[in-house]
Structure formats: structure tokens, C-alpha cells
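Hey, why these numbers?
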Amino acid sequence: MCGIFGVIGQNAVSSTLRALKLLEYRGYDSAGIAVKREGFLEICKTEGRIAKLQQLAQALSEGRTAIGHTRWATHGEVSTANAHPFLSPNGKFAIVHNGILENYAELKAQLGKEKFTSQTDSEVVAHLLEREHRGNVLETVLTVSRMLKGSFAIVVLSTEDNKLFAIKNKSPLVVGFSQTGSYLCSDIRCVAHWANSVAVTPDNTVVELSDSSARFFTLDGAPLKVDFFVPEAGESLPQTDGDLMLKEITEIPDKLRRAKQAYFDGGGLQLTVEQARKIRRIYLVGCGTAYNSGMQAISVARQWLDVDAIPVIAGEFIYDNYPVDGDTLSIFISQSGETADTLRAAERVREMGGITYAVTNTAGSSLTFACRHTINIGAGGEFAVASTKAYNCQLVSLTLLLLDLGRMRGTVPFSFYSKLVEEMDALPDAVSQILEESYLVARLAERVKDCSAVFYIGRTTDYPTACEGSLKLKEISYIHSEAYPAGELKHGTLALIDDSVCVVAISTDKALKDKMVSSVKEVTSRGAKVVSVAPYELPDCEPLLLPALHPALAGIVAAVPLQLLAYYVAKRLGRDVDKPRNLAKSVTVE
């Protein structure tokens, strides 16, 4: 979850501070930087955002070697003491860490009565480096690496040389080079601002980085060959007078066009007809918004698929007993391509011989290396923590992928395939129409913001949309919210409905309109306010009207007014919509 950065080169302090700003979406409760001076390491760290660190770091003079960290708390409260980097007791080593050390308590006990300055698991690494040091830093790092269990990307700075060292297992770590420096970073898009050649570090690897070369080793010290490649150009943090979340919502029309084009430019399904027809089961695996997009896509595709297709939360997939064989297609969905649970699930399926697809927004991410095939959703950089445009673009990519699969299996007539692909061209204008009428959503937000709870309901293909709408609201407004299939309210949850509650009813299937009207009656008779999201009006509801679209595509557009509703409610409650409390953009711990 945390962002880490290390650099050997000119202007190391300013480069590190700039990188931490780009990495802030990964965690923003505290931050720090360590820079090497002649014979000692200088550290500056604080609780709070990068802007606060930038002010404090003005007292630092430039150096050639530095490491930095922006934190999402896993161990210990938010405080300056728990912020990274951590120094070894003798001041010879500084470390930054992304991940979780599962055996830190055992290691801490081995260190005996040594004084620790923080409540974190990470600080134990700095103490171990000092204890095991015999004069060779690489050998010290290798020794310590073999003691650690868990998920970690750890960068080590020492007073003894002009190198950086790193230990990597199950947390992202990229090595990069440019004409002016060498870099270690937890995010390929960040390091691409400097580096024109990068490598994704494998698990269970130690890296020795100098200003002109990188050496990779197994934990036993054996040399390891890792390939470098040219990354896509890094995207700058958008400059905007408003909120990034709103800016990213307004980009959806253009990004929907790009998502469709990216699918075909990337080669589409990339399976032969024989492979497609042998598939016996499909899993769509993701977390949070990515899981919701898989659930939405498969709820639509059931009408044309003749094979079992199941959306699965990645953290459950890892530990449950889902059968996998060579005829299993597993689609792993992650905006960042670094979501830890999703990566572990992809690795499991690959080991069991299944067909693996990465549906991601980040070329060169860990997920693209874990899967056999990749589809880039083309949403462009997404910096607000609550995902918006990536969800809509994931749905375009997934719908095309599953439609292609049906065509190859002979369950989708070419006429239907062509019609749906063509009708996707209407999506950008439909979203633009909603954006032009966003003042109507803002007006409704005034009524929703004071509710004690908000329940989102929908049937069949509208239920996943309800789940995503509910997730957006709770993420950034902190109002209690849940989503239900509309018929489920009366099986217990109706006990919570009163005049302090709002219900958002999503209804895009005209054949089920009367059923939704009945559900609305059930909650209005108990005093609830109801907002309808539909291409037609429902009685007793405040309407948010949708443009008429092909039913298979309606969910791509229906999510937009729900994204706007969450945004406007949060703004009226004074929330930080781009960086909500307790959350981070890229969840790199299980």
C-alpha cells in the first residue's frame, strides 16, 4: 500500500520528494526521506501529507543518494515516530518498507532488549541489518533477507557506499535507469518519469543498485538474470483547481472510446477457436471496484455464454477450493495491476495450468507478468483513490472479451456481435448527456447527505451496479451504505428502513420495471426517500433519468450518476474526496 522510492543521481532530495507526491495515492498518513551525507544519514519525516514533508525538507541540502516513503498504516498509529524511514541504532542503515512482516514479533524477541522507537513491524529490519553487519553490505542484506517472512519491498541505504539495496517478495518493486540516475520504486508509472529502461523485480530477490548498474540475486546469493524493457511514458499528476475524482469522471466519455480501441489494438481474445470451445469454466477475479466490474460483466454475459462463469473476490479465491485445470479461463481485474490478493490468485491459477488474463490499466505491472494474456483498459492514469473511469473502462473491455468468447464458441451470432460492438459507440454521448445534467445529481445530494444510511437496490444486471454505487458512497462520504438484490430487502433488511433512510433504486430492464415498483412501495410505505436511476420514471421516486441504451451496455452508463452522487454528497459533508480516510489506491498487502 505504501509508496517507496530510492535514487542515486543528481538532485536526489528533490527527485524523491517529487516521486513521493506521485506515489501519495498509495498512502498518505505520513511520509519521510533519508539522504546520505559524508559519514552519516540524515532523516526528515512527519505525520500528514507530502506537502508537509516538502516544507520540512527545505532544510535538507541536496545529495546523490536518497530513499523516501509515503505510508498507509499497517502496524502502529499514525505518528511521526511510526513514519518511515527507520534508522538502525548506530545510524549506519536506513530502510523503507512496503508490505507486512509476518514474523516481526519473533524477530523482535530475538533482538532482546534493544530499544525500538516505533510500533511498526518495519523497524525490526533496521535493527537486524546492524546486528548482522560484518563489513559487506550486500552479504548483510542477503543474510537478513533469509530471516523475513511475509510480503515486502524493502530499500536499504547505508553510510558505507554509494549504493542502494533492496529485498523483494510479493510487493511491487521496479528498478530503473536513465542517463542521470538509477532508481528503485514501488510503481512503474512513477519511475517512468525518470527511467527509460526498467525491470520488474521477481519475488525472493535481492537487488544491489549502483549509479550505472543493477545486480540481482536469489536469497541464497546466486546471480539472477532479469530483463529490462522500455516503459510507457509516465503520466504527470494532473493539475486541476478542483478535485481529481470529478476530473476523472468527466474523462469517462473519451476513455470509453479508448477502451474499445485498446481492446482491438491489443488483439482481442487472443485464443484460437479450439481453445475457446474447450473452456469449461470462467472465473472473474478482483477486489472492490474490480470485483464489481467482473460481477457486472458476467451478469450481462450469462445471456450468451454456455459455460459456468463466476465472479470471485480475490482474497476468497486464494484460500477457497475453486477447481482449476487447463480448460479454466480466469480473468484477473486490477486497475493498478499490483493488487496483492489478485496477484496471489493469478499465481495460483498459473501454477495449476489455467488460462490467465490480466485486465488492467497499467502496462508492465506485476499482474501483466503473472498472466499469460493482457488487456489494457486504456483509462489513463487514475489518481483519486475512489475508482471511477477505470470501472467503466473495465466493463467495456470485459464485455468485449466475453462477447468474443461467445462468438468463438458459436453461442453469439455474428449479427448480434456486430450490433453490440457498434452500439458501444453510443456510450460516450450517453455519458456526456449525464454529465451535462450533473446539477440534478448535485441537487439530490442535498437530500441524501443527512441520511442515516443509504441502501442501493437492483435486480439481475442492476444488482452489481448497486454494489458499485454503494461502495463509492461509503468510500468517500463515510455514510453507512449497503447494496441488495431488490427482492432481498424484505428478508430482514426491511427492519432498518425508516424516514431517516434513503434508497437508490437502479432499474434498466423494462421487463422488471413492475417488480422494482413493488420494491419501491415497500420502502416508501415505511418512510424512506427513494432515488431512481432508470431510463424511465418510477412512481414515488426522485428520478435520475438515463439515456436509452442496449440493455447489455446500460450498466456502463448507469454507474456514472452514482459516481456523481457519491462525489456531491461527500463534498457537502466536507470530506476529502480524493484521499478518503483509512484507504489507499493500490492495495499491495493481503
